[in-house]
Write a structure and sequence with these properties.
alpha+beta; five-stranded mixed sheet; about 20% strand; binds flavin-adenine dinucleotide; binds FE2/S2 (inorganic) cluster
Length: about 500
């Protein structure tokens, strides 16, 4: 087992040992390396001021993604590259086209948010290959970057013009990343240890399973978009971590016959396109899941394993009839996802056991699945209520109904009484209206900052009515923002 981590920071190799494993990348950059161009705003993944670009080997290339450094743990850098805003300027002192475009468009005032915008746009510049990104795509890319004084118009215009400027010499830096990352790639388990606290980074499923079994009290970390916030905001004292990020089997996504099997450690940005392809409306929820920075690290497994009653994946997955694959050492078990959530904060997971994958049955008629995320903001917000509907109608009669909500109970929960009220009935508005009182048997929602109990109860009922209407006519009549804004 190696006892130091290695990664590239702005093109130079860093080898670190004996550092507290709960150290965030942002603290390391600012306090140790004095790279203070990367800013701290919220320290919880919300504002994007700390955005840096992480590079990772992927099929002989380096895949670059924008991430929030404030909630990324140092151990998660093993074998990766980190680029900060200081590295963008060319060797001749010229600004990178992204920076020049922001300057030309007067897209900065106080400037505190600007390094974060630069880095989000730099990832877009490197990744998309679109000569002129569409405004909808740019809006999605910038949803995780908050600017309080400039206004987004000039920033979006800068993003649209950045490819028109002469390319800087940064291509040389990126190809040197590839060579250097290939040179430090290996398959050994790595541990970053300091005073008995450890961050394990295994590279194989067997090593990962063994470490989980041997250290049942350790915190499994995937994207750290929850775990990072426990550290920065809740000040939780976590002794040991086991990271899923280097285990390729846990990140694999594939179609197996009539199933889509998603490895628990696949980041949302890796599964988004397949979800859009097979379940377009679930894709809309994924698009609104946090921000690009959050989706670039946050995983489907973390979203389920955290047991949150307001997690956005569970309603759609349960409505689809998804199954969760759990593994402990060499043994596996599979259960319907709804059975995994036992009570608030309690899931059916044994010590040393972990979520290995999620299996989603493919639908003959993908348009049948509709998902609705109700939140105060369109982007980067947590749901007050999230409802998902999968109602099978044949010859005008409801054959089967699977309806699930988040935000309505202590766990994501199916509307079993409503489903029973619909089953075998004619699929008409009268049937839907007659089924509405059954909601009061299924749910007794709570009031909190996101919505009152009465709002939630009413909204849940209204969503079923909306589903009925959407199954009769085009979505454009009922949706403010169509999916074409992002994917069309
Ligand atoms: C700014 C921001 C915006 C967000 N927006 C949304 C949103 O729109 N919708 C939403 O639902 N959530 C949102 N979240 C919450 C979070 O991003 C998700 O829950 C995410 O999917 C968690 O995944 P992760 O990989 O980051 O989990 P981690 O933080 O790594 O882990 C979360 C929990 O799961 C456990 N865990 C992780 N992987 C496994 C595994 N394979 N087996 C067993 N246990 C495991 C961890 O021990 C921990 O208890 C947001 C978070 C932030 C910071
Ligand atoms: S400091 Fe706000 S997202 Fe990191
Ligand atoms: S320029 Fe001031 S917050 Fe964006």
């Amino acid at each position: 087992m190696r006892e130091s981590i290695q990664f590239l920071l702005n093109g130079r190799l860093e080898t670190l040992r004996n550092l507290p494993p709960a150290t965030t990348l942002l603290n390391y950059l600012r306090k140790v390396k004095r790279l203070t161009g990367t800013k701290e705003g919220c320290a919880e993944g919300d504002c994007g001021a700390c955005t840096v670009v992480i590079g990772e080997l992927n099929d002989g290339h380096v895949r670059y993604r924008a991430v929030n450094a404030c909630i990324l743990l140092l151990g998660m850098l093993e074998g990766r590259s980190v680029t900060t805003v200081e590295h963008l300027r060319g060797a001749d002192g010229r600004l990178h086209p992204v920076q020049q475009a922001l300057l030309d468009a007067h897209a900065s005032q106080c400037g505190f948010c600007t390094p974060g915008f630069v880095m989000s746009l730099y990832a877009l510049y490197l990744g998309d290959g679109e000569p002129r990104p569409r405004a909808g795509r740019i809006n999605d890319v910038l949803a995780g970057n908050l600017c309080r004084c400039t206004g987004y118009g000039p920033i979006v215009r800068a993003a649209q013009s950045m490819h028109d400027l002469p390319a800087a010499d940064t291509g040389v830096k990126e190809s040197s990343d590839l060579v250097q990352l290939q040179a430090i790639a290996h398959r050994e388990t790595v541990v970053l240890e300091c005073r008995g606290r450890r961050f394990y980074s295994p590279a194989s499923l067997e090593d990962f399973a063994r470490l989980c079994a041997e250290n049942p009290g350790a915190t499994i970390v995937s994207g750290a978009t929850d775990v990072g916030v426990w550290i920065t905001k809740w000040h939780r004292d976590l002794a040991s971590f086991i990271w899923t990020g280097r285990v390729s089997d846990l990140r694999a996504v594939r179609e197996e016959g009539a199933l889509l099997r998603i490895g628990a450690a696949a980041p949302w940005s890796d599964v988004e396109a397949l979800i859009v392809q097979h379940f377009p409306d679930f894709g809309e929820v994924v698009r609104r899941f946090g921000s690009v920075q959050v989706r670039n690290t946050a995983t489907i497994g973390g979203n389920i394993a955290n047991g949150s009653p307001i997690g956005d994946a569970a309603p759609a997955l349960i409505a689809l009839g998804a199954r969760v694959v759990l593994r402990k050492e060499m043994s596996r078990r599979t259960l319907p996802l709804e059975a995994f959530f036992i009570a608030y904060g309690r899931q059916d997971r044994q010590p040393g056991e972990f979520v290995e994958a999620i299996e989603l049955p493919l639908l003959a008629d993908p348009a049948r699945l509709k998902c609705y995320k109700l939140s105060k903001r369109f982007d980067q917000d947590i749901s007050a209520v999230c409802g998902a509907f999968n109602i099978d109608v044949a010859d005008g009669t409801v054959r089967e109904a699977r309806i699930c909500y988040g935000g309505m109970a202590a766990t994501p929960k199916r509307a079993r009484s409503v489903e029973a009220a619909l089953k075998d009935q004619a699929w008409t508005l009268a049937t839907v209206m007659a089924a509405l009182p059954a909601f009061d048997h299924d749910y007794a929602p709570l009031s909190d900052v996101r919505g009152s109990a009465s709002y939630r109860a009413r909204a849940a009922k209204n969503l079923l009515i909306k589903y009925f209407h959407e199954m009769q006519r085009p979505l454009s009549e009922t949706r403010l923002v169509g999916r074409e804004a992002a994917f069309g």
